[in-house]
Specification:
The structure is a homodimer.
Chain A (H helix, E strand, L loop, with lengths): L1 H23 L2 H8 L3 H7 L3 H25 L4 H7 L1 H9 L6 H7 L6 H24 L5 H24 L3 H14 L5
Helix pairs in contact in A: 1-2, 1-4, 2-3, 4-8, 5-8, 6-9, 6-10, 7-8, 8-9, 9-10
The structure holds a DNA duplex.
DNA sequence: ACCTGAACACCGTTCAAGT
DNA sequence: ACCTGAACACCGTTCAAGT
């Protein structure tokens, strides 16, 4: 039950942050969602900065795991690359939530340093994975793979941001399709 | 002096919102920046929702004007299209600020309806302008221009979001360059 | 017409007190 | 070890009171 509270807080805080951002997170609603008092949240996470950093760290850890699983279960690396946007699509399917990296990235100006650091790691692992897969699928030379990986990450994040503000998953799919026909993403 | 206070509030609130979002806006800091008391802000804008909506409306009005000016002063429409991302670049040059439409778009879940409406207009006028210019420069058929316009808007917004979270304008330029070589944006 | 101080409920935080 | 209530300073809001 003790560990469960901490895990439940991390999970509920992640969902809240993907919906309302770090600024939109608040201890009393979070505590209520888990069934404890707000002062109990401070026992597990002394400050909001600690909570935010823990949530962001867990988020990129989970993402790193999902990315490796995606690559492992794909017969060819092109297939993993093609499925990559599905990770962002799943956030939209889950109550129209935004990628935590995008939301906290937007808020980064006012974020505690510990949180900002974790958010940057999220971006780094996405770009590193894309770069690796682009090279493995030999659709790009190693020299251009890094630039291309960053552009894909930025464009997919942008598509999710726009589609989310309209609560329109079909728009996300259409944006991705246009990225493909234009050549930013491999067909 | 009276009108100046209202205008000064709108301007200061826009800057604050582009840095910290709607949730990061607060009446006391805003009032202090303009030199009045926080209760005076409520005289001009009864609620935070009113203030947010006024800021967002002014923002898309200014953007609409800038877009028309850009098109008017461009000898060819391709030229205006090429210069379009400069509008987003200018926000980064101005204290690393994010497009208000992107920030409030991310926050849209918790935004008052009046604010959300204005934010959507911002997206609409951007896409409509891009679509018009794409057709005029005959780089796209009318049938595909709309899809392409939305993809460009999403990708440029995403590039700004990523570059801003790194406080790296050069990254914005590199992302845009990659969009061009990949074919999403005309060379 | 425009501005202000005081008061209210809310939020992050602390801390002494519980079990 | 884990949880809680009470108290603090902060924020959006209201309102009576100023000019």
């Amino acid at each position: 039950m003790n560990l469960n509270v901490r895990e439940a807080l991390l999970e509920a805080a992640r969902k809240a942050a993907q919906s309302h951002g770090y600024n939109g997170l608040n201890f009393r609603d979070l505590a209520a969602a888990v069934g404890v008092k707000s002062s109990s949240v401070h026992y597990h996470f002394p400050s909001k900065a600690d909570l935010g950093a823990a949530v962001a760290r867990r988020y990129w850890e989970d993402t790193a795991q999902a990315l490796e699983a995606l690559l492992a279960e794909s017969p060819q690396p092109q297939r993993a690359l093609h499925e990559y946007p599905r990770i962002f699509r799943k956030s939209l399917e889950d109550q129209n939530r935004l990628c935590l990296g995008s939301f906290m990235g937007a808020e980064s100006e006012g974020l505690p340093d510990a949180v900002k650091t974790e958010v940057q790691v999220f971006a780094d692992i996405n770009v590193a994975w894309l770069e690796k897969v682009l090279v493995a699928s030999s659709s790009d030379s190693p020299a251009t793979a890094h630039q291309r990986a960053r552009a894909i990450f930025a464009a997919v994040a942008g598509a999710q941001l726009i589609a989310r503000s309209r609560s329109d998953i079909a728009l996300f799919d259409e944006l991705l399709a246009t990225y493909r026909v234009s050549g930013l993403l491999p067909a």
